Amino acid sequence: MEIPYTVSTRPDTGLWNAKVGIWLFLASEVMLFGGLFSAYIFLRLDAPPGMWPHGLLNVPVGTMNTAILILSSVTVVLAWAALKMRRYRAYWWYMLATILCGVIFLTVKLVYEWPQKFDHFGAYIKPEALGKYEQYLGNEHAAAKGLPPRLEITGHLHNRAALTDPNIKEYEVYLDPVNADPTNPAMDRPHFLYVPPTHKLAPIEKEDVERATMFLPTHSAYFASYFTITGLHGMHVLGGVLVFIYMWLPVSKKLYQRNPEHLANRVEVAGLFWHFVDLIWIFVFPLFYLL
Amino acid sequence: MDASTSLETHHHPGAHGAEHEHHELGWWRKYIFSTDHKVIGIQYGLCGLVFLFFGFSLMMLMRWQLAYPGQALPVIGKLLPYIFGPGTMPDGKMAPDFYNSLGAMHGTIMIFLGIVPVAFAAFGNFVVPLQIGAPDMTFPKVNAASFWAFAVGGVIMLTSFFVPGGAAKSGWTSYTPLADIADKGPNYNVIFSGQTLWLLGFIFLITSSLLGAVNFITTIIQLRAKGLTWMRLPFFVWAQFVTAFLLLLAFPPLEAAIVMQFMDRVAATSFFLPSGLVVNGAAVSVSGGGNPLLWQHLFWFLGHPEVYVLILPAMGIVAEILANNSRKPLWGYKSLVFSVLVIGFLSFVVWAHHMWLTGMGTAVSAFFQTTTLLISIPSVIILSAFFISLWGGSIRFTVPMLFATAFLPMFGIGGLTGIPLAFNSADLYLHDTYYVIAHFHYIVAPGTIFGLFAGIYYWFPKATGRKMNDFWGKVHFWPTLICMNVIFLPMFLQGMIGMHRRWYDGGQGWTLSGDHVWGLTGFQWNTPISWAAWTMGLAQIPFIINFFWSIKHGKKVNDNPWEATTLEWTAPSPPPHGNFVTTPIAYRGPYEYSLPGRDRDFTMQNEPVEPRERVRRKTPEAVLV
Q: How far are the Cα atoms of B102, B104, B120, B185 from residue B502, in angstroms, in the given order?
């Protein structure tokens, strides 16, 4: 028994099966990410002044990742076009380039960006203690300029044991530049380039702290949505890469020799998915990195 | 049913394909890890029916607590602690947490593991490819993956009964922040707690329905037989088509919400936890900044289309059976098709009518009130068309027809009692009372489930080549119909005198329940309701026996025992792998019953149009002469 229209098109719809299937699947994916993005919007609109952090992500690295993903969308189309022209070697190289782009993207995310967050520390100061830390927060300066108040002191935690040991009474933090020199007008806007914490060490007493965590999902609504959405997006990238690897391996060459159009169709479908993953990132990047 | 009977003619000489792929599949590949749409449909159906009975059993347990609160449940009450753990039924008396678990899991299991798998996946899988003249679904392997994702989801849901603290207990809607913090006491296990497993199970169930929905829509678009144009599709196929779109587009926002609640429970995020949340007198150590209403919006964005996922396939089944047994074309076929499409569209813009009490504001309420009333129009069109279809027919009261005709008034009661709930002023009073329970169950229990029973009796001969026993079918039907009404009619009254749906003591301790309705207080009505529920449980025994007995011993019938017109009846019973002996071609609409000038009162879709018929069709007056 053979299912009709797996490779050839059905005359009245002009489509083969998997092409209908993938578009339906993508419609479903739009709703999935649509749900997450609308959650992002609601959480952000709900956030009180000063509670939605800015400038914590590394914009140049994010830009590079965006470019890599867009490049991979180009190479996957070239791979498909090569198959259509029955040039298997060119296909093989373009597919390899696509796979590498995906791997680089994931590596940057998992080896560089995420761990850097896990290593970063933030302490929200209790409202009544804000005055005590004015030298790190510069809220008078911020109020004079009409900027939202700063409620959190961030940086690199020197005594990590303080997170778990109740006998340690204070956090020692190598301050981020914004807390090291809060009244400097250069700090009024988030940095574009990543600036590492300074060598200025500040003690923050635990009893003045409302909540202190590393930059984990639990840190704030911002990081919760950042890790959830980029995590889910990363899983989509991983899925795409695995599918591409399968299509690049010798096992798919056998299909090419038997029915090249079939492989071309598979690459087209996977490529559509890949473009979608790319498109999601085009939304993620400005939402989290730029806005 | 035993798949060996459904596939015994595996090597039918297929007209297409089968000749060059003639290797024998092993037993496991043929019946367990099969990719044949009929086997998968039967797998879905059997699992779904088992889950339906299991979910119903949970409710039968709850009915004891509601009728006799605090009293020890005889016999079974002594056994249950050995299954569900000692804390659930100490001395045979139901613990409050266990009651909550039963309630939450009853809803979850009935809807997502019972009705959707049977109504959508089982009937859709088995019947749709046959009705459109296709050899199988477009993606058979994806189809199998869909079933196995469902099975894994079901196992996870069942497992959750046995973890410390028991299964999910925050209602089937899992409202936050309650569900977020459930079980989070000492000894909180991040994964093995009832609510977390509920979320995990759901991820698998959503994956399953996504794969199924993609497959169904693609199949209907791509694999229709030659000549089977859109307006020649049986109404059942249309219903499944729209249902698949609802599942495809409505489930993912819930998946997003489930991922977020999962993060809340596992990674201690605060998507649904507001700032300053206090639990048991202590501030919860979370970042806050979340929004509990966000969950409700995302949940009901699925939740309302889901109601139509539950009802539309049943409407499709009922349409087939009404036309077949009244020996008349379905009245207003085009109106039915457009109504079902409009329902599909509108069902996406009514969700917040579940949230009148959340204080969304009058403008939002007014919008959703309007759309909710709008959606009743196509529903009424469908029901009216069904009723008119009966008019002047020569009705055959077969067992499927009994269930299908009973569907009409039952669904009618369920639908009409929904109108007061659509107005937010009336709903302020009725919200979360037994009135809502009665309204919803009239649609889904004597509505959808009757449709499912009708479909099982109707297509059983196609799956097995044998009919189910008529007499025992009637023994199944009448008590079930009576019990359904004894259960759910009094609930309207209970709700109208103000009884809340989630009371552990069934309203015994409610001082205002002194109101008498027909001589009984609201609480006292629990007793007859409970006895009717248990009786209805007994009334399913004839069905279960009939079902399994008929697989081997039912009366043998030909390929078209109901003298029906649609394409599935042109295939052999049971259909072989690849379905049709010759690829069918459709020449006419789906319901050509009692065509004048024919010696039979049904004309099948694959019978060519004769020249004299063509003339007659062009000038209806000629028919009268």
A: 11, 10, 29, 23
Q: Say yes or no: A228 and A275 in one domain.
A: yes
- Asked if B290 lies within 8 A of A221 by C-beta distance, the reply is yes
Q: In order of start, what are the domains of chain B with their CATH numbers?
A: 3-8+27-273+288-624 (1.20.210.10)
Kindly report each contact of residues B332-336 with a partner whose C-beta sits within 8 Å and lies 24 or more positions away, as own/partner. Answer: B332/B381, B332/B385, B332/B388, B333/B231, B333/B235, B333/B589, B333/B590, B333/B591, B334/B231, B335/B381, B335/B385, B336/B235, B336/B238, B336/B381, B336/B382, B336/B385
Pairing relationship of beta strands A152-157 and B278-279 according to DSSP bridges? unpaired
A209 in the same domain as A126: yes
Residue A224 and residue B291: Cβ atoms within 8 Å?
no
Q: From A192, A214, A236, give the residue that closes a domain.
A: A214
**Three-state SS at A121:** strand
pLDDT digits (tens, 9 = 90+) for B561-618: 999 999 999 999 999 999 999 999 999 999 999 988 888 999 999 999 887 776 656 5
Domain that holds residue A127: 121-214
- Cβ–Cβ gap B256/A36 under 8 Å: yes
CB atoms A39 and B215 under 8 Å: no
- Tell me the shortest Cα–Cα distance from B110 to chain A, in angstroms: 24
Does residue A263 fall inside a structural domain? Answer: yes
Separation CA B46–CA B463 (nearest Å)? 13
The answer to whether the Cβ–Cβ distance between A218 and B270 falls below 8 Å is yes
Assess contact for B167 and B194: CB atoms under 8 A. Answer: yes
Is residue A21 domain-shared with residue A114, that is, in the same domain? yes
Cβ–Cβ gap B138/A17 under 8 Å: yes
Residues of chain B positioned with their CB less than 8 A from the CB of A219: 287
Taking alpha carbons only, the member of A152, A153, A134, A155 closest to residue A143 is A134
Q: B362: burial class by Cβ within 10 Å (0-12, 13-18, 19+)?
A: exposed
| Residue A4: inside a domain | no
Q: Domain total for chain A?
A: 2
CA distance A216 to chain B (A): 9
Indicate whether A58 and A103 sit together in one domain. yes
Residue closest to B401 by CA, chosen among B287, B515, B317, B508: B317
Write the residue in B218, B250, B285 that is nearest to A20 by C-beta: B218
Question: pLDDT means per 10 residues in chain A (291 residues)?
Answer: 92 95 97 96 89 87 96 98 97 98 97 93 92 92 90 92 92 93 87 85 93 93 96 98 97 95 96 98 94 84
Chain B: residue nearest A232 by CA?
A: B259
Same domain, A239 and A174: no
- As a whole number of angstroms, the distance between CA B195 and CA B174 comes to 8
A196 and A244 in one domain? no
**Hey, are the CB atoms on A3 and B578 less than 8 Å from each other?**
no
In terms of DSSP H, where are the helices of B391-525? 399-416, 419-422, 424-430, 434-443, 450-464, 470-496
Is residue A3 domain-resident? no
Write out pLDDT tens, residues B311-360: 999 999 999 999 999 999 999 999 999 999 999 999 999 999 999 999 88
Name the 3-class secondary structure at A10: strand
Last residue of a domain, one of A153, A180, A214: A214
CB-CB under 8 Å, B16 with A1: yes
CB nearest A218 (choices: B255, B257, B287): B287
Residue A2 lies in a domain: no
A164 and A72 in one domain? no
Contacts of A36 in chain B (CB under 8 A): 256, 259-260
With CA atoms as reference, the chain B residue closest to A4 would be B223
